[in-house]
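wait is this the right file?? whatever heres the structure
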């Protein structure tokens, strides 16, 4: 999340962004945004920036959870990004599959 803040606009709703998981961030100032759609867009963009900043260092099984709350404390958005790596079998050591017996035309 950007640290630069604009002066408080009392006409706009305020949203607070919390991040937990691989990293933790508690937003104490909030963002004045026109609506929930703007909060949604900022949550996705900021989570994407966080993932980019990790430079591939997110451990297997880790999660990043971005939660957005309204000024009255209600949770209005929750984004969960989970990393899971599955180990696939090494297919290079297996023989070619046998084609099924098809009837002759």
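ok assuming it is, sequence goes like this
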């Amino acid at each position: 999340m950007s640290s630069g803040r604009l002066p408080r606009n009392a006409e706009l709703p305020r949203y607070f962004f919390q991040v937990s998981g691989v990293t933790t961030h508690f937003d104490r100032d909030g963002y004045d945004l026109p609506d929930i759609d703007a909060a949604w867009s900022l949550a996705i963009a900021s989570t994407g920036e966080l993932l980019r900043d990790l430079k591939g260092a997110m451990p297997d099984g880790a999660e990043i959870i971005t939660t957005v709350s309204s000024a009255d404390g209600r949770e209005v958005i929750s984004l969960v990004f989970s990393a899971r790596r599955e180990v696939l079998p090494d297919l290079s050591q297996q023989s070619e599959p046998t084609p099924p017996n098809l009837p002759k035309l």
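Strands lie at 14-21, 25-26, 31-32, 63-70, 75-82. so i think its the right one actually
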